[in-house]
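The protein record quoted in full:

***
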Amino acid sequence: MSQNLIALNLSPDDVAAIDAALTTLETRFAGLIELSADDRRSLAKMGDKSEAFCRHTLIVLGQNRQIVPDELDLAAAEADLQQLDLLRPRVARLRRLLTRADDTEMALGSDVLGAALEGYALAKVFGKGAGLDALKDVVSVRFSGRRKSGGAATP
């Protein structure tokens, strides 16, 4: 029995609307940056405990601006915190959507692979004289080098 985890049906209008929405997101999120792996490793990261400390410190500094030296850009830090608060829920929604998209992509691929493997097995059994030898030769490359302990190719 064939596996069918999902039957997705995106119409041309759906695809066009999705592409337009993605273009809008890319345009609206144009200010987002991409860090290198080295930058990611070297940055100080604000975790849950650090965040509480940061928020409290900015509140106290905001209430006592007279002690804040000019080289500490408190307004920029406050603006960064405000933007972080605006960005986080949107990133969470994007992550949830991306997780669903990844899972759907995996399920679709698995459905396709399952059907292809079943078809290949049928071609191996019924292919003699049915004109399927060329198909068997082409797709058998996928299994080259993979052998069962008995020496037969594994689909």
Remarks:
- Residues 46-143 form one domain.
- Helices lie at 12-28, 37-42, 48-63, 74-126, 133-139.
